[in-house]
What does this fold into?
Amino acid sequence: MNLQTLRPLPKADMPPPPTVESDTANAPVLVRFEQVHKTYDERSWVVDDLHLDIRQGEFLSLLGPSGSGKTTTLMMLAGFDAPDRGRILMDGNDISKLPAYKRDMGVVFQSYALFPHMSVAQNVAFPLNLRKVSAAESRSRVQEALALARLEGFEDRRPGQLSGGQQQRVALARALVYRPRILLMDEPLGALDKALREHMQLELKAIHKQLGITFVYVTHDQDEAMTLSDRVAVFNEGKIAQIDRPETLYSRPATRFVANFLGETNLLEGTLVSRSGSQAQIRLEESGTLHEAHCSDEHLAVGDGAALAIRPENLRLAAPGEPAISAFVIDSIFHGAHCKLRLRMDRGTELAMTYNPGSLGRAAPLPGEKVALALPSSQAMILR
It folds into this structure.
């Protein structure tokens, strides 16, 4: 393969990027990606120098936009694709070239891939038949898997007689029937409507808790990843931009991409004027005001351009005498329990603010009204 136009592989003695502890941080590493690269056109990396540890028993979601490398990563783990560089280890053994059927992993796809001419029971039993499991053992395991997926009584139905949610359950039961060590899922709820998708999220979370095996889940849906996961790996352009617990990713994003991809974020441009450890001060371009906030980027130095990031729900109306920035309300959208305000600063920077009139004891500001906004330092971040 000619990959002269690609960036060279890092030296083998280069350490992997630092990982962040999660609730399963003390669990043993089950799978490790070491300097994994993948290309399809020999010009650009779809997966670019991937380092990733997957721990025993965790629910890990691979989250990112289309083309970010998350599905390719899952396909390499499943054995349906192979790395062009680097290796994938399971229990310390290189499985990069091991056939998919020897990897002890169940896979659930968005399309379900059920056999239309087979009954539910026959579909679920199919992996056991391939493994030459005895008829008695197969019947026992099929009933166990159907009970886990809450499909008792559906054994004799065909896939065409089932709803989308029921078909998804059959695919899940089939993937779990031979008791794999890892369950891999590629957008498994993408074909379901919103209400059913949310219900199935709860079902998946309960099944994971009951089984205690490792789940690796690919999605582009931020809410889904945040709801289901012990940890989330956010992919961007073939790399992991950040991996951490959902609440940490939301409250302490490491980059602008992560901040914008996980919910809405206000970004106020400025210049770093001082820093001490993880705390720094930034002077905003538009208002000229100084603001202190958390800064986890060790490469940001005094004098560098940066942005103050703050979520809409953390913006609030400033108290008299409190340091603030000023903006005009340009729109107000009623959402029942809260209002969503769109604001514009004097030189054009637009902001979003979530406002709860009930908790603050006053009506939401009206369009055209000028307001003073506080930027609480404990809930703001400085990003490159």
In short: Confidence is low (pLDDT under 50) at residues 1-22. Residues 317 and 373 are 5 Å apart (CA to CA). The first strand starts at residue 29 and ends at 38.
